Amino acid sequence: xxxxxxxxxxxxxxxxxxxxxxxxxxxxxxxxxxxxxxxxxxxxxxxxxxxxxxxxxxxxxxxxxxxxxxxxxxxxxxxxxxxxxxxxxxxxxxxxxxxxxxxxxxxxxxxxxxxxxxxxxxxxxxxxxxxxxxxxxxxxxxxxxxxxxxxxxxxxxxxxxxxxxxxxxxxxxxxxxxxxxxxxxxxxxxxxxxxxxxxxxxxxxxxxxxxxxxxxxxxxxxxxxxxxxxxxxxxxxxxxxxxxxxxxxxxxxxxxxxxxxxxxxxxxxxxxxxxxxxxxxxxxxxxxxx
Length: 290
What we know:
Blueprint: H1 8-15, H2 25-29, E1 38-42, H3 46-56, E2 61-65, H4 68-77, E3 83-87, H5 95-103, E4 113-117, H6 122-130, E5 135-138, H7 143-166, H8 174-177, H9 183-199, H10 207-213, H11 218-229, H12 233-250, H13 255-261, H14 267-278, H15 282-289
Parallel strand pairs: 1-2, 1-3, 3-4, 4-5
């Protein structure tokens, strides 16, 4: 059960402090103008759930569930859940079991999970960590504290996305450069990247083939890859091809052959995409590496 300062004045005060703390609207909402983060709140106390939902709704799209089983159904049916916030103690499926099921299912193991609890003993904290929770918050707490915690989690994720898309993290082996990925997400990327490398020269290699390899529907695969890397499958495949091409160039492959080896049907399109990513055309890239 949530324990919060529920008077309207407290919430109003919290709503005004984000910029003063260095976290303005973009940080709180995930950085995309006009696109709010969707938060799933889970608690069996309906009155508090409604109160907290109303307060959080000023910064987020809020979805609610009254127990773990209902929350699992929401996560499975919707494709826009960005963060789960769950009470620890609930009848039926509690917060720890909900977290364990989310983090053990590759379809949504990437979703950040916050556990709220009034239990402060070490055994409860250990259980919270063992189930895979990203953050463990003790009660009582404020809406401001919760919002800042979400903002920090999303900021960390956005930094990882930026490094991934810019080449700061190797597309061929992102796990080595991002050890904080959980086990299922790391295995997901490793399996996917190995399959992509095997087929990178195939111009007909498609998103449907990638989804089938990962035993997912196209929509589930899209949600998973976007959640883990911040890129759509189309962008991720193109990024992978370009980084693979850059490695071939570094290894001494001829520029005229690299486009074909990396799966580009047109040398001119390859050069255009390569320059957009690396800032130089392939020949200039080779010269800079010598």
